[in-house]
Amino acid sequence: RDTLTILGLESSCDDTAAAILRVGARAEILAQTVHSQGNLHAAYGGVVPEIAARAHAEKLDLCVAEVLRASGLALREMDAIAVTAGPGLIGGVMSGVMCAKGLAVGAGLPLIGVNHLAGHALTPRLTDDVAYPYLMLLVSGGHCQFLRVDGAQDFTRLGGTIDDAPGEAFDKTARLLGLAQPGGPAVEAEAAQGDPARFAFARPLLDRPGCDMSFSGLKTALLRARDAIIAEKGGLTVQDRRDLCAGFQAAMRDVLAEKTRRALAACPDLAVIAVAGGVAANQAVRGALMEVAEAAGVRFIAPPLALCTDNAAMIAYAGAELYRAGQRDDMALAARPRWPL
Ligand code: KG4
Ligand code: ZN
What we know:
alpha/beta; 11 helices; single chain; binds zinc ion; transferase; 2 domains; cytoplasm; Nucleotidyltransferase, domain 5; 45% helix; binds 5'-O-[(R)-(carboxyoxy)(hydroxy)phosphoryl]adenosine
């Protein structure tokens, strides 16, 4: 069929989401909703898998009902149901997969299991109709990798973090400095008023060739700098905190920019670099990537923030491409905690 109407479900981390897309020559989001569990986990300093799984199971039906109502469509008017089948917290992924199986069987619709990372990686095709091949930098709380994208099922990993993800490093930095979670926006706001030159944090792995990155040492360096100030003065001033954030963010920005330069140099045939993931919201990071793209003569694409972070529109969109590629899943579709592209 030329135009597909697809229901997508996402529940692999701490957001429960559903979306309905119509995908013809262009993709159109007919309805979408995201129920974030952030507040449920706030007291624990991180996502608690059991709490997440339970909340997903409770919210999925509600999300589906919401998007059906908002789109004015009935379930039987869908051409397929796409669902995140991994990677992620297994309880949440299982909740989504079970919900999708129930809907698919009930309405007699095809089921399509989608890799969450593929959802992120294909987002620039949903938002900007980008042609293959292109370079994707996925930078979120759980992921950090460069992907060469040649097709909906054709990804090549050029490099990535060997320890913490950038969003995780932002979140840990915020925790060390007593700032609110999620840490990214809080650290960015403090950094805007800080002096990035006061703390000259090392830029990890820039001395090594390739596109791999490391951020756990940066977090340790920040911890040491913080403790040195506390040992000397008995506590942090507002300006100390701002300068620490600025130094941290500058190091993060420089590493991501330099590794992006290398990834582009390794793929001279690519005309586009796209970003996705929550850290792509950071203006300093975004600005640096834009400069790298400009210097390399390639187009830079950053999807709107709501489509950079976890959402179901990207899952429905990836589902449409996989449907067109002939993928069909059945009741044997498994939830996978680990699933490299
Ligand atoms: O993609 P996402 O919503 O979820 C996954 O991790 O899958 O990304 C969330 C991460 C969090 O670690 C958050 O601190 C980070 O993205 N983040 C930011 C900013 N906004 C969100 N990091 C840096 N600067 C920001 N403005
Ligand atoms: Zn994600």
